[in-house]
């Protein structure tokens, strides 16, 4: 994500950015002040020499689901986020030009996989990642990944779909140290919170769900799972900078 503290912009207080992102009637992110990119249709490349390339997009997600053994329970607005950065990192050898590893963001952390473990579109040189339904975690293969234990937790569902985002079709380079003609946009180095602050709370929607859970054993599992949820599921305090996990 680059470094710095948005020093070139006239407004420096984090509070200015906390509520500038809104969702209009068509569920489109709008930002009248002109600080962030005008379009989310472009895939943005931040290229780091010697460390592969980084790609990310701007979107929002909502409506996580809880899995209790064989039962799936919608959790309403719990988990809704606005303006989260999605990204993966391709690590490419500067000597051979071959793809070595790929990093996929997954909630508050992520993971690396080696090239032989990746799936490629049509058997060609395009690695495939699967974004979870109603979430923002990325995985190397389709299926269910459970965020919890003992078959109880938050569902991360992925599967093959006709809805595909091809990062090679429409993109722009926003940062590359070796390309002097590329001017970094101001938002690239913004390192503080932005977007709305939301607290979904355990007492409202989650306590309401608990009433329909049958049996003390399942209720106990439910409470344990809810208490173990990450803060990003229970609310939002405005996303911060894109975080990269190095191996």
From TrEMBL:
InterPro entries: Neprosin, Vps62
Taxonomy, superkingdom: Eukaryota
Xref: Pfam families: Neprosin, Vps62
Domain Neprosin PEP catalytic, first and last residues per copy: 1-69
Name of protein: Neprosin PEP catalytic domain-containing protein
